[in-house]
């Protein structure tokens, strides 16, 4: 399941609900990941644009990869402005045993950073500035160059 | 045939329509646009919301080509 919210995430509600949803699923491991916006470089927060059709496809490929290992993945992300010290991204993996979940959360979060169609902006001094220096070209970038 | 090109995220350009039968033709036309200089080599491309990497990909009338600049979720 993928969830998108305008503004910061209610991490406790979402993680608690995900846990409740799987309470009878007999998974032995549940590994949550929380991305919290740090106060650095004078930013007031971050802002996000998302292209949902391709994000949904990217996520569904991960659902299939997880399923092949008997696991499930979940994620939630913010759209628009998110203040420092709150969360813009959370994800989680459930699996029968811990090893699959530990490895999957690592691969899932890293590929998220590299290939999920989400664009980040710094909110600073009333401006919304594309975080170009922290952004990564997606796989296959440059085909039109 | 007429296709549509859209620019996602920070490129901040309005969508444009153009005549093209392959992605190579789209590439040639976009390279002629100075305002896109610097973006093309960093952008991934989707055709009707499916990622594509082959310039010979044929296009149909009404197709939608999307440019996806460098990403940073989380």
Summarize it.
Chain A is α+β, with helices and mostly antiparallel strands and 145 residues long.
Topology of this protein?
The complex is a heterodimer of chains A (145) and B (74).
Chain A: E1 2-6, H1 11-21, E2 29-36, E3 45-50, H2 52-67, E4 72-83, E5 87-95, H3 98-115, E6 118-124, E7 127-130
Parallel strand pairs in A: 1-4
Antiparallel strand pairs in A: 2-5, 3-4, 3-6, 4-5, 6-7
Chain B: E1 2-7, E2 16-19, H1 23-31, E3 44-47, E4 50-52, E5 64-68
Parallel strand pairs in B: 1-5
Antiparallel strand pairs in B: 1-2, 3-4, 3-5
Write up this protein.
The complex is a heterodimer of chains A (145) and B (74). Chain A has 145 residues and is α+β, with helices and mostly antiparallel strands. Chain A has helices at residues 11-21, 52-67, 98-115, and strands at residues 2-6, 29-36, 45-50, 72-83, 87-95, 118-124, 127-130. In chain A, strands 1, 2, 3, 4, 5, 6 and 7 form a 7-stranded mixed sheet that branches. The mean pLDDT of chain A is 97. Chain B has one domain (2-68): Beta-grasp domain (Ubiquitin-like (UB roll), Roll). Chain B has one helix at residues 23-31; strands at residues 2-7, 16-19, 44-47, 50-52, 64-68. Chain B is of the alpha+beta class. The radius of gyration of chain B is 12 Å and the shape is globular. Chain B has a 5-stranded mixed sheet, with helices on one face. The interface between A and B is medium-sized, with 36 and 31 residues.
Low-confidence stretches of chain A: none
Q: How much of the sequence of chain B is in beta strands?
A: 25-35%
Taken together, the total number of domains of chain A comes to 1
- C-alpha Rg of chain A, in Å? 16 Å
Order of neighbouring strands in the sheet with most strands of chain B: 2-1-5-3-4
Specify the structural class of chain B.
Answer: alpha+beta
